Amino acid sequence: MRFSILPLAIGLLPFASAAPLEKRALSQSDIDTLQLALYLENLEFSLYTGGFNNFDDAAYRAQGFPPGFRDNVGVIAQQEGVHIRTISTVLSNNGVKPVPKCEYTFNYTDPISFVALANMITTVGIGAYIGGATNLTDNAELLLTAGSIVTNEARHDTFLRDGLKASPFPTPFDTALTSVWAYNLAQMFVVPGSCPQDLPIIKLPKLNNTTPMKPTDIQTPKDGGSTISFSWDPSTFFVQQNDGTQLYIALLNQVTMISFVPIAKTPARSGSITVPNGVAGVAFAALTTFGSGVDLNGLTAFGTLAGPSEVVLG
């Protein structure tokens, strides 16, 4: 069954957004949080629209997905459209121009690689909503709306993981992201120079997950104890490091729990780690000189040499 995604999304909007959209003053923190949420929702809407339009039901079923899976991908795209209109209306009603969509590049070739990529991107959105909640504590209506969106996003991710025959709920807690980390994770899928409006968020040096995987750039499940490899470009670091400096991978997983793992360098631009037991679901990795004693806010403000990079685990 084919259907038009955007008109249905618009049609659903009044039911989703009437109550929380009363005009009220937004703080700068509210605006920054909503603009990042919209930036990520635009990314997700484009992703899911493509996943619905580019493959028919037969293609999904040929790769082991159950009947109706593609239709539910379309429903997710509709709901992302509702999120976009809801956030845009909040901003517009308060005199703020909503951040427009960019152009995106998604490296999937078939339904399986699409669903794996959607798991990655949706997890970033969930993390951004969790981390951004602390910025909305002075605005009960916005906090309530954001909370209702993030639970919906989590249902999307459960559906995706179940479709991949992975655990639908691999950890008892999801992982929070700072705005800087969420924005930088999104850059992997944004065509450089394509955004009509960039957000006022710093772009960090890249940390590349180079673990052999198939298809390219789609993270395959890795259990604790697996080896994960990374590469980086020291010339892009904001603070230059001596070749002999011990570097670590900080693995963020479950709320704001961080595991610091020494990285075995091969020469100075790449290295690998063994994933600690207990790190599961999706983790976010950053290259740092800190081996302990710094939290997520510290890593964001001054502790990240390169990253973050997303690592999908079992």
Sum this structure up briefly:
The chain is an alpha+beta fold. It has helices spanning 5-17, 28-53, 57-62, 69-93, 111-132, 140-163, 179-186, 296-303; strands at 207-209, 227-232, 248-253, 257-262, 264-265, 270-274, 282-288, 306-312. Helices cover 42% and strands 13% of the residues.
List keywords for this structure.
single chain, 314 residues, alpha+beta, four-stranded antiparallel β-sheet, 8 helices, 8 strands, disordered N terminus
Low confidence ranges: 1-22, 214-218
Q: In terms of structural class, how would the helical and strand content be classed?
A: alpha+beta
Mean pLDDT: 88
User: Taking strands numbered 1, 2, ... along the chain, how are they ordered across the largest sheet?
Assistant: 1-2-6-5
Structure in words:
The protein has 314 residues and is α+β, with helices and mostly antiparallel strands. Helices cover 42% and strands 13% of the residues. The chain contains eight helices and eight strands, in the order αααααααβββββββαβ. The chain is globular and about 50 Å long. The two termini are 33 Å apart. The relative contact order is 0.13.
